[in-house]
Amino acid sequence: MKNLTSCDLVCEAYSKGELEAERVTCTKLQDFTLASWPCYRDAIPQFFSRLLLPSLSSFKAKCSMGSIMPNPEDSFRSIRHAINVSQSPLTTLEFENGPIAEEDLLSILRTTPTLEFLKLVDVGPHAITDQTLNELTVRPNKDFITPRLSSLHLISEVEFTSRKFVAMVESRQNGLLGVDHLKSVIIGWVTDEDDLNENEASNVDILSALDTYRSEGLEFILMTEKRTAQDSEDETED
């Protein structure tokens, strides 16, 4: 384990069983990929509570839909704990198909100034909030987070204020305080209906103001998606 540099882990469907309590340190592990089918109770939290990953630079996770965990947010929370405790020099973070609480994502962003690429897909409406956007916004004489962030991809339900998102992106394109410019911003606005309601349409229209930065080299993609029937069923079950 000490010489392991990359790991592709697959959690099998409904696997269970107690893990060893001893902590495992993977001193050279840089790339970690997790694919998870519905796991029994706290299998993923148990696993990550025992890991130290002091060299981790890339973490990618794709969870299954329909987790049987009583608290599905615990999957990402345990990953956040491992990254924070390890003080991992993370540059890439991708997470799909699992709810993320605002405080868990903020905890990683606040303690990982090396982060360059952030991709979140189907993570619920509370992963990125107005508070998150406030802390990502670059202002003179005020603390901000993730100075190296160059790519932000979010495909999920959102509840943040569109104007705050636009202001955050604009603040990072101004070259203030040595912060890297955003090179890629992808927003997939997930909605319940085939057509956007009036409020959603207004928010999408506000976000489209970022089109102007394409001439300066920003890859900006704004799309809308209807939430699948399976997503709705999962929420009802929760």
Secondary structure blueprint with pairings:
Blueprint: E1 6-11, E2 24-25, E3 31-36, H1 43-48, E4 51-52, E5 58-63, H2 74-86, E6 92-96, H3 102-111, E7 117-121, H4 130-136, E8 151-156, H5 162-172, E9 184-191, H6 198-207, E10 219-226, H7 229-237
Helix pairs in contact: 2-3, 5-6
Protein name: F-box domain-containing protein
InterPro entries: LRR_dom_sf
Organism: Armillaria solidipes
- Alpha-carbon distance between the two ends: 37 Å
Spatial extent as radius of gyration: 18 Å
Envelope shape = globular
How many DSSP E strands?
A: 10
Describe the oligomeric state of these chains in a short phrase: single chain
User: How are strands sequenced across the largest beta sheet?
Assistant: 1-3-5-6-7-8-9-10
Helix coverage percent of residues?
Answer: 25-40%
Q: How would you describe the overall organization of this protein?
A:
The chain has helices spanning 43-48, 74-86, 102-111, 130-136, 162-172, 198-207, 229-237, and strands at 6-11, 24-25, 31-36, 51-52, 58-63, 92-96, 117-121, 151-156, 184-191, 219-226. It is globular and about 50 Å long. 29% of the residues are buried. 28% of the residues lie in helices and 23% in strands. The mean pLDDT is 87. By secondary structure, the chain is α/β, with parallel strands linked by helices.
